[in-house]
Amino acid sequence: MDRRLLLFAIPAMALASRAFAAPEAEKPAEAAWVTMTGLALPIVVEDRVINHIFVELKLHLKPGHPLEQVRAKDAAMRDALVRAGHATLFVLPTNYNRINEQALARSLMQIASREVGRGVVTRVEVVRQTPRMRVRNPAPPPRT
Q1: Prediction pTM value
Q2: Which of the chain's termini has less CB crowding within 10 Å, N or C?
Q3: Closest to 127 measured CA to CA, from 18, 16, 21, 53
Q4: 143: which DSSP letter?
Q5: What are the φ and ψ backbone dihedral angles of 37, each rounded to 5 degrees?
Q6: Are 36 and 57 in contact (CB under 8 A)?
């Protein structure tokens, strides 16, 4: 076989295969998340901090949103969340060794909308809760 013919045939075959290939459907951008670890939130009862809960959070982001923008605001969101923990009280009335996940998620969604923009964080997931120490839970209310 002639080498010159072969040298021209290979690129032509490659171009032809691309032309007849089915067009790829564009994939929608996958939603990403940012993990916040090592966050110590206070458990405040009767104006006293009685425990700290170390929390690992996953912030689910709007599809296509850059992770770097949210990671750049990580320190500000952590600081605001700890301050909110003293004001909002993420304590469960029946368990001093766990965080009220709904109150925490609500508060962090407000903080995230203020820091990184409205609608960027779509959901907050509490991945893990670890108490600094085990604290005796309050006595259940008496039955009537």
Answers
A1: 0.71
A2: C
A3: 53
A4: P
A5: -120, 165
A6: yes
Cα 21 vs. chain centroid, distance in angstroms?
39
What are the pLDDT digits (tens) for 103-136? 999 999 999 999 999 999 999 999 999 999 888 8
Q: Mention every residue, 6+ apart, whose C-beta is less than 8 A from residue 42.
A: 49, 51, 52, 82, 85, 86
H or E element that contains 126: strand 121-131
Tell me the DSSP string of 20-88: HSPPPPPPPPPP-EEEEEEEEEEEEETTEEEEEEEEEEEEEE-TT--HHHHHHTHHHHHHHHHHHHHHH
Kindly state the tokens that stand for 110.
């407000």
Q: In 3-state terms, what secondary structure has residue 140?
A: coil
Report whether 53 contacts 132 (CB < 8 A). yes
